[in-house]
Design brief:
mainly alpha, Sodium/glucose cotransporter, 23 helices, 0% strand
């Protein structure tokens, strides 16, 4: 009962933190504040907002779950994202910042800024909605897997309760979510590190892992080198389309502030990723017949109710630092790239806010329902990353190759994204992760169509470059 009270108190307090801040900043009634925080976020808030997406509840629980079966290589889900942040900062951070200068709020709007194409924007919109729909759908279930056993409630019922709470929290807007993430990140780091260290001391040493489970459990190439590289590269290129990352670039006081914050988050993630993976590995020794999906909590509970409660709060923190941001991302994309682009082009700020809030509610309900029937959490997350990796690769190439035009970008993203999505939902035929067929097809199409366009510099690149050059460096 004490554990339950602590978790409930934690959820209530962090929700109040977000609502109080958003009320003071009037963030829930102003579109600029609601979506991008009026471009007032400092490096600390940027860091914790970014950390929230990278260490999702699905990645934390999913990493421990996968490590229970495969070992340390499960950490590549987060390591690939961290690498993606570094690539983002040194390739397309300026592109997004300038797009925000010209009024962009979403990822698809930045693609239209580069390629001057509504069709490219629509393709990216669909990719973002599919990918973040999958990512959000994993969050209520991840939280329910921890809380439901504590109070003896059916996991499905608890999943619905979590979904409703996420909807309420998403309605605070970006500034409120950023404030909540400061608390979430601290609890998450402390909880997983404490459980990981205690589990290590309990097992004794890594030599016991090698003797009991085999040396491959401590390698980073399971189940195969191609799978690991595919998952890592998928996470890397997917983060070029990370809506939280892009929102931070739009929302920070300056581009330098944004880059400093997200790079700090990436470094924290590289270190943190070891702990859920090690907990899963040690859990395999401690509870060889245990349930993989709840192994993190099972291991923590070994060390008493206080540690069990801390682990529960850490998992809740991971989920709650991510799920509301995902919902806000989905509603922002629907509002900016569907509602005012295709439905009501002259929508007022108030109408956009109302639509966004209704979208949060609708998406929250539908995605929670779909997430109830998902099986392996980390598999769904990895697949989602690799679907959006295709568009991320196209944007990096398009930012530097002057010949790339809207036609080659559109077809490479469309066909490559479809291939990656089909491959993912088909269950990864032949054991090949979606990154390879999706990005392979997309890149080949991009190169062929670009070489055939007959221009040294495409018209849309020339337009994009002139807009980039017109912005004084001091305004970025």
């Amino acid at each position: 009962m004490a554990e339950l009270i602590m978790v409930i108190a934690y959820i209530v307090v962090t929700t109040l933190v977000g609502w109080v801040l958003s009320t003071r900043a009037k963030a829930r009634n102003d579109i600029n504040s609601f979506f991008v925080g009026k471009k007032e976020l400092g490096a600390v808030l940027v860091c914790f907002t970014m950390f929230g997406e990278m260490i999702a509840g699905s990645s934390t629980v999913g990493s421990a779950q996968t490590a229970f079966s495969l070992g340390l290589s499960s950490a590549w889900t987060n390591w690939g994202q961290a690498l993606g942040v570094f690539v983002f900062v040194f390739t397309v951070s300026k592109l997004y910042r300038v797009a925000g200068h010209y009024g962009a709020y979403s990822v698809p709007e930045a693609f239209e800024f580069r390629f001057d194409s509504k069709k490219c924007r629509m393709v990216v919109m669909v990719i973002v909605l599919v990918v973040y729909g999958i990512l959000f759908a994993m969050q209520p279930k991840a939280a329910a897997n921890i809380i439901a056993p504590m109070i003896g409630v059916d996991v499905t019922i608890m999943t619905w309760i979590m979904g409703i709470i996420f909807v309420i929290q998403a309605l605070v807007g970006l500034k409120g979510i950023a404030a909540m993430n400061v608390v979430h990140s601290a609890i998450l780091y402390i909880g997983c590190v404490v459980v990981g260290v205690l589990a290590w001391n309990h097992v004794g040493s890594l030599d016991i892992v090698r003797e009991t489970l085999g040396g491959e459990f401590l390698t980073i190439t399971q189940p195969s080198v191609s799978t690991v590289i595919g998952n890592a590269a998928g996470g890397l290129f997917a983060f070029i389309l990370s809506t939280s990352l892009v929102a931070n670039v739009y929302s920070a006081k300056t581009k330098r502030t944004a880059n400093a914050g997200v790079l700090a988050a990436a470094i924290l993630v590289v270190i943190f990723a070891f702990f859920p993976a090690l907990i899963g590995i040690f859990g395999k020794i401690m509870y060889p017949d245990g349930e993989a999906g709840t192994i993190l909590y099972t291991v923590a509970d070994t060390f008493g109710p206080a540690v069990g409660a801390l682990a529960s709060m850490a998992i809740i923190a991971a989920v709650f630092s991510t799920a509301p941001a995902f919902l806000l991302t989905l509603s922002t994309t629907l509002t900016r790239d569907f509602y005012i682009t295709l439905i009501k082009k002259d929508a007022t700020d108030k109408q956009q806010l109302n639509f966004s809030k209704w979208a949060i509610f609708g998406i929250g309900i539908v995605a929670t329902f779909l997430g109830i029937y998902a099986s392996n959490i980390l598999t769904q997350v990895n697949g989602a990353f690799q679907i959006r990796a295709v568009a991320g690769l196209v944007l990096i190439v398009g930012a530097y190759w002057k010949k790339v035009d809207k036609t080659s970008a559109f077809w490479s993203m469309l066909i490559g994204g479809i291939v990656a999505a089909v491959w993912h939902f088909a269950g990864q035929p032949f054991g090949i992760v979606p990154f390879w067929p999706g990005c392979g097809v997309g890149l080949v199409l991009l190169i062929i169509l670009t070489l055939c366009n007959g221009k040294k510099v495409s018209d849309d690149y020339a337009r994009y470059k002139s807009l980039m050059d017109a912005v004084p460096a001091g305004e970025l």
